[in-house]
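### Sample
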Amino acid sequence: MSENDQINLIYQASCFILKEIECLLASNGLLLEAGVTQFAEVRQSGRLIACAGLDGNIIKCVAIDREHRGSSLMLRLITEVTDMAYRNGFERLFLYTKPCNIPMFTDCGFSALATVEGRVTLMENSTTRLPHYCQTLAEQFRAGEKIGSIVINANPFTLGHRYLIEQAALQCDWVHVFVVREDASRFAYRDRFELIKAGIKGIENLTLFPGSDYILSKATFPAYFLKEQGIIDECYTALDLMLFRQYIAPALDINHRFVGTEPFDPVTEKYNRDMADGLFRAPSEAPAIQVVEIPRVEKCGGAVSASRVRKLFDEGRMDLIRDLVPEATFAFLSEQANHR
């Protein structure tokens, strides 16, 4: 950096500044991702030469003008956006980048967690946090020949979710259930977790885990350098399954993962198919995980799903929801309906 360089922290970028950032990103072959309005920027004599965006605890939209690459500018830029995240209350930071950029971000204190070759690498600002998380998981280890797992969003928790968990519990010595932690869902994570906890009462061979940063959220997965939706979906799925197979599953000796069949959403249906490749057939040093699909339970003339419940909720059809959800979920939705 030179004495003419000025660093600014922007907590709500104006349309004019966003346009400048968009142009800088475009010159680097990147897109401005919707919803990212917080940035650390570097200007030289008033001209924008570098930027790094912040989306919660994820650093996005990092770009440096071609003339200024190879300097100490990247380290200063990442330091500033990291401090910005700390001020926002986020200390555990992640970033997604092209694999060729790993050395550059390693020099900034980030370490690689998983890579889709030639596409994307997930990094975080720690070398010890993921191993520590796995150690925490291992404290809940349960011995058995068949150890199952389920990852659910439960938006909201339905009798379909309850059925899936019951079937897994019947087939396994123990089942570990992980909740996706994101507040981009229709219902807040805190509410979803409490509804799941209430809905699984009576199932004894089960551990419910709160959400973690290592169960990836598709809502915050970046699109700014992958661009094509098909590639974005492919990379999200691959990274999510790598983290699960290489780190989470070994900590608990998980050898089965259960999912419900997906008759409605083609994206989720493809994810289920890709799961069998990523967890079982793909080459890996980690043990293979058998994917088990459980047919959806049907009630009132159709498959029970969270999307069906949300649709009925939006239509005010609480009378039809009653048969699709546990009592705790129905009580929660009724209260929500009364406050609309």
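The first helix runs from residue 15 to 27. This sample ([Citrate [pro-3S]-lyase] ligase) is used throughout the tutorial notebook.
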